[in-house]
Amino acid sequence: MYIHQVAAYLPDQVITNEHFTNLNGLAADWIIERTGIRERRKASPGENTNTMAIEATRRVLAQATAFPADEVDLIVGATYTPHDTIYTLAHAVQRDLGINDIPVVSISSACSSLLNAIEIVEGYFALGKARRAVVVVSEHNTAYNNEHDTVAGHLWGDGASALLLSKDRLAPADLLVKEVLTGGAAVAGKADEAVTLKPVERGIVMPHGRDVFTYACQYMARVTRQLLERQHLTLDSLTYLIPHQANLRITKNVLQQLGLPPERAVSNIERLGNTGCAGAAIGLGDTWPLLQPGNRVIITVFGGGYSYGAMLLER
Question: Does the reported pTM lie above 0.90?
């Protein structure tokens, strides 16, 4: 299975830390120190999870060299911030593409959903039910976020990314998906209450941030090691690590556990905030032009609930 291309859509509106200083008194430097975030994007009143997913998909297909839109035979969407729980982002993308009678699937496993979506594609490909897939991850965090919440209200940003996957290599620059490894960790710590989003109540809340931090660091480092061991590879063979973009301190902790230098890590949290399951995919798109033949990339993720995973890519 190969990733043929990846593209992102980010809303135009930029929300700086000073916005939260004026709103609830949080110092801009304090936010940077605690999270690494300097600014984030916010969808406009006319945008939502579905519209951002559509735009990301249009962009990735426009970039594709050997992947006509009419050859798409599977769409998998992922989000925990849906615009509509029935007419999902996957359906919206299908309607925009005008391709009927193909499978469309939408999933949510919080911020780790990207890799679960890719696993679904893996299954369809293995069963011979599809050969050309779109995976689209989109988060409209600001639709659910409470900006007055001084614990987590400043963390979230909006954005989307779309990936084209094929069963066969279509171009020399395609990335081979060597292995995807995921798992649920709902029995760990305060997984049932550490991060929640109950739309009829208060939206996104994170009452147990320390618990999230602890298990995110633990699981992302552990699953990265497991994946390398399963592939009989060393850390030295890894060109880039793309962690879930939740908190810069988490990224630094994972790097320290693994013994990787900072320049090996891809980070966009400083300018985008936590864009949920879209963050790592956006990071892959940022890294794409830098990749050379023989390079290896691991995407490692952790989501509230809890869930985790890692994916090894090779050019």
Answer: yes
Beta carbons of 139 and 160 less than 8 angstroms apart: yes
Tokens representing residue 307 in the block:
């869930």
Helix (H), strand (E) at residue 228 = helix 209-230
Positions in the chain whose pLDDT score sits under 50: none
Structure tokens given for 42 = 């916010």
Pair 52, 154 in one domain = yes
Kindly report, residue by residue over 254-267, the tens digit of the pLDDT.
999 999 999 999 99
> Based on the number of CB atoms within 10 Å of its own CB, is 187 exposed (0-12), middle (13-18) or buried (19 or more)?
exposed
Do 187 and 215 lie in one domain? The reply is yes
**Tokens 């995110």 correspond to what residue?**
216
Residue 311's identity, in one-letter code, is M
Q: Are 7 and 56 in contact (CB under 8 A)?
A: yes
Please, what is the Cα angle at 156 between 152 and 158, to 5 degrees?
A: 165
Eight-state DSSP code of residue 143: G
Domain that holds residue 38: 2-166
Q: What is the CATH number of the domain that holds 15?
A: 3.40.47.10
First to last CA, the chain: 12
User: What pLDDT shows up at residue 202?
Assistant: 64
